[in-house]
Amino acid sequence: MESQDILQLARDAGVRLVMFAYCDNSGIIRGKATHVSGLERRLASGIGVTTAMQAMGDMDRLQVMDGMGPVGEFRMVPDLDTFTVLPYAPGRALVLVDMITMDRQPWDACPRHFLKRMLAKAHAMGITFQAAFEPEWYLARREGDSFIPMDESLDNSTLGASMAREVVDDVVDALEAQGLQLEQYHTEVGHGQQELSITHADALRAADNHIIYRETVRNVAWNHGWLASFAPKPFPDQAGNGNHTHISAWDTAGQRNLFYNPDDPMQLSELAYHFIAGIMEHLPGLTALTSPSMNSYRRISPGSWSTAYICYGPDNREAALRIPSRFWGTEMASTNLEYRPADSSSNPYLALGAIIAAGLDGIQRGQMPAAGLRIDTDPARLAPDELAALGIRRLPSTLLEAIHALEADATLTDALGPLLTNSCLTVRKADWELFSQHDADFEIRHHFYKF
Ligand code: GLU
Ligand code: MG
User: pLDDT tens, 14-59?
Assistant: First the structure.
């Protein structure tokens, strides 16, 4: 889109405020709005924000970091293709931004730029990526300090789908009005829990879409008097909220799925196995970016389909990587890998960029996953010595373990670069220090309605 198209769209829709938005290192979506009278200028020159925002944790406690403090600004410069008039908020629009330095270069601490860098690296290797997120969320209301789920409906319950109909149908309308195509909808196993997925897109657009999706769901629910919670585990006695991440590799023309080989028993190519090997190797550190909040580790546990073990298998929903069965008739196009230890407290640019960095490392080194990691059963049903014999390790079971694993993973930290590594680790550590001193109620109250 050109800037003149945006000005026209804004005029036609009677827009007054345009939110320039980004997702920070804590997975929080933040932004500042310009009045439409300044839009033309702001589209070109952006809106200034203190660099300190990338050292801000999800409790708004500013961390001390070189290059992110009271001195200095980055500019939020919009990607014009992400401009959307908000169907749920009359008179408002939103555009997603890149973080740009004062000398007009991408800022090293910009998560969106990190994903772009990983995609450029893949492109140089002849690979492009398609991705789709599969977000789960609860509808609930607040009563004092408690949150009450919308209903007590069951998994895949048509009754639950009826009870949530007004909200869900408005969500679908609003997504469609913004060009996001609905793929599937069903109620999940938790009371009041919904799962509504949208169609895959190229990886950068998929991450952008996830931000637009989160904004849309929360706002539409709010308009109906409900809170939509994307927290990884908003109710300790109910199912967690995953954000399973589907990814497939294509040639640069977007014609051939490079993960597909019809002659393989799992219909996977050698390149797919290399990618899987990279994921298996880097999973401990990856979880710090794909399941990055304190609340994430209440979700990741054996026996809850959130996965807890480093392994993969066909349609195995307790494995960290599921190889989904193909759609009949479109086997090549529908071949993908589903990364499961992911939730919506993550920054989708960091999460997807890190998954790609790990997979590319497996490809570059021609790695193959160890034979024992392919598993056709629930790993939680295996005894510790059986797991050890197969070489299957547990995913990090606390945020601190994940932080240490990321710190020790040179592939991931090199990919992120020093500034982004340091800022991610610093805000994560601050979260750990705070939340580990408090109980589950405190943790849930401060995660319930943030993502
Ligand atoms: N709610 C589960 C999770 O936390 C996933 C259930 C499923 O869709 O398989 O990931
Ligand atoms: Mg689900």
Answer: 999 999 999 999 999 999 999 999 999 999 999 999 999 999 988 9
CA 345 – ligand 1 centroid, Å: 15
The three-state secondary structure class of 139 is strand
> In this structure, are 223 and 100 located in the same domain?
no
Q: Which residues line ligand 1 (CB under 6 A)?
A: 136, 188, 239-240, 242, 299, 305-306, 317
10-residue mean pLDDT profile of the chain (451 residues): values are 96 98 97 98 96 92 91 97 98 98 97 98 98 98 94 94 96 98 96 97 98 98 98 97 98 98 97 98 98 98 94 97 96 97 98 98 98 97 97 98 98 98 96 97 96 93
Going from the Cα of 189 to the center of ligand 1, the distance in angstroms, rounded, reads: 8
Nearest ligand to residue 304 Cα:
1
Which residues, by Cβ under 5 Å, contact ligand 2, an ion? 195
DSSP 8-state secondary structure symbol assigned to residue 106: B
Q: Which ligand is nearest to the CA of 305?
A: 1
In angstroms, rounded to a whole number, what is the distance separating the alpha carbons of residues 70 and 75?
A: 15
Q: Tell me the two tokens of residue 429.
A: 């550590």
Residue 75: inside a domain: yes
Could you tell me if 323 and 260 are in contact, meaning their C-beta atoms sit under 8 angstroms apart? no
Question: Does 380 share its domain with 444?
Answer: yes
Residue 266 and residue 303 share a domain: yes
* Cβ–Cβ under 8 Å, residues 15 and 92: yes
DSSP string computed for 354-379? HHHHHHHHHHHTT----GGGB-SS-G
Residue with tokens 């809106």, as numbered in its chain: 47
Cα 443 to ligand 1 centre (Å):
21
Domain membership flag for residue 112:
no
> pTM here?
0.98
Domain containing residue 351: 117-448
